[in-house]
Structure to design on (247 residues):
């Protein structure tokens, strides 16, 4: 696309996805700015994963458009510019951490030096020779993240990266996310844990395939007159229900 000005990493317009007989996404429109950590929050089953799959180009869409870094989602030229981490660790248990990263580096065509760089970035250097199958759940998640960081992608799409992690690891990962954003990487991070909302630069709140809010954490609390993200989310649901009640 020739009119891309470099300020928006993701642009979604009127996105509709139907899976079987279920309407998974109901005409969503949103944008993710460059160099920010944007949280995609909502309960399990609200459509977060479907939206992320649409953004990385592996989900069939029914209507609307998804533009990533100025190009239609899923285009081959985006392959090295977008890193995607699924809910389940997408690495091989029967290979060591380093062997996994060497394999994915070769697939991407990234420089050999990238392996050591991402090992250090994700604090996995001491685990480099261990078989992935022997690692804890949190460490396996970090291996998946390290693989996604190979080649320094411009956009990271992370689906529930902190699920099941202890509080210390969660804090460390969020610190890493913001460090990456400070270097210019754009991040879309999904979670169903509302207290993670405060760790984001901007929030996209979803429910039942629809977007409830697109706000900063402070703006969300101010708009709902609440003091915490969970109460704000419930307030948005309640106000939406009132608007749809018959007169």
């Amino acid at each position: 696309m020739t009119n891309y000005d470099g300020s928006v990493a993701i642009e979604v317009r009127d996105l509709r996805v139907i899976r079987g007989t279920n309407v998974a996404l109901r005409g969503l429109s949103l944008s993710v700015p460059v160099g920010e950590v944007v949280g995609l929050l909502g309960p399990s089953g609200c459509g977060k994963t479907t939206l992320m799959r649409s953004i990385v180009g592996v989900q069939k869409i029914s209507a609307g458009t998804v533009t990533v870094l100025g190009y239609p989602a899923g285009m081959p030229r985006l392959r090295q510019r977008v890193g995607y981490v699924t809910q389940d660790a997408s690495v091989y248990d029967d290979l060591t951490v380093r062997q996994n990263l060497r394999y994915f580096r070769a697939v991407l065509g990234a420089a050999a030096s990238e392996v050591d760089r991402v090992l250090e970035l994700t604090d996995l250097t001491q685990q480099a020779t261990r078989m992935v199958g022997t690692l804890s759940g949190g460490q396996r998640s970090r291996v998946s993240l390290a693989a996604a960081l190979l080649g320094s992608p411009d956009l990271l799409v992370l689906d529930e990266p902190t699920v099941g992690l202890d509080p210390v690891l969660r804090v460390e990962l969020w610190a890493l996310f913001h460090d990456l954003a400070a270097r210019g990487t754009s991040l879309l991070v999904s979670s169903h844990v509302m207290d993670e909302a405060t760790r984001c630069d901007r929030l996209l709140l979803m429910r039942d395939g629809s977007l409830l809010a697109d706000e900063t954490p402070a703006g969300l609390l101010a708009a709902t007159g609440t003091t915490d993200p969970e109460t704000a989310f419930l307030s948005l649901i309640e106000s939406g229900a009132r608007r749809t009640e018959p007169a």
